Amino acid sequence: MGNVYMRAFKEGPEITPEPFSNPPFDPQLGFPNGRKPRVMTVSAAEMDAVQLQPGERNYCAEYHIAVKVCHQKWPHFMGWKCHHERHAVTGCLEEDYKLRMMEWERERRLRIRQKRMDAKKAAAEAED
C-alpha cells in the first residue's frame, strides 16, 4: 500500500493514475486486433433474485451465485461440499485483481510515454 503513495510522491500526480478515474487513453491503443471486452455474465435481476451483497456484484457474480446455490443445497455443517465453488470464486477474484492492476500499470506507462513525447516535442520546438 505504501509503495503506491511513494510512487505517486516520486513521479508526481500527472503520472500516477487515480484509483477510480477513467482512463484518458484509447483502450484499443497498442492492440492491433482489438481487445476482448469484459461483460457481465449475470443480469441484475438474477443478482437480485439470489440476494448478492454489493461486494459480490462484480465480474465474478456467476461464481458467487454458484456458491449461494450450493450453500442452499447443503446444510451448514456440510459446507465443505462447496469448496470447489468457493475456490472458483477465489480464482476469479484473483484474476479480476490481476487484470485491474495490469490496466492501472498500462495507464501509468502510457502517461510516462506521453510525458516523454511532450518533452521531446517541446525540445524540438525550442531548437527551432
UniProtKB/TrEMBL annotation:
<keyword id="KW-1015">Disulfide bond</keyword>
<dbReference type="GO" id="GO:0005743">
    <property type="term" value="C:mitochondrial inner membrane"/>
</dbReference>
<dbReference type="GO" id="GO:0005758">
    <property type="term" value="C:mitochondrial intermembrane space"/>
</dbReference>
<keyword id="KW-0472">Membrane</keyword>
<keyword id="KW-0496">Mitochondrion</keyword>
<dbReference type="InterPro" id="IPR008698">
    <property type="entry name" value="NDUB7"/>
</dbReference>
<keyword id="KW-0830">Ubiquinone</keyword>
<keyword id="KW-0679">Respiratory chain</keyword>
<dbReference type="Pfam" id="PF05676">
    <property type="entry name" value="NDUF_B7"/>
</dbReference>
<keyword id="KW-0813">Transport</keyword>
<comment type="function">
    <text>Accessory subunit of the mitochondrial membrane respiratory chain NADH dehydrogenase (Complex I), that is believed not to be involved in catalysis. Complex I functions in the transfer of electrons from NADH to the respiratory chain. The immediate electron acceptor for the enzyme is believed to be ubiquinone.</text>
</comment>
<keyword id="KW-0999">Mitochondrion inner membrane</keyword>
<keyword id="KW-0249">Electron transport</keyword>
<protein>
    <recommendedName>
        <fullName>NADH dehydrogenase [ubiquinone] 1 beta subcomplex subunit 7</fullName>
    </recommendedName>
</protein>
<comment type="similarity">
    <text>Belongs to the complex I NDUFB7 subunit family.</text>
</comment>
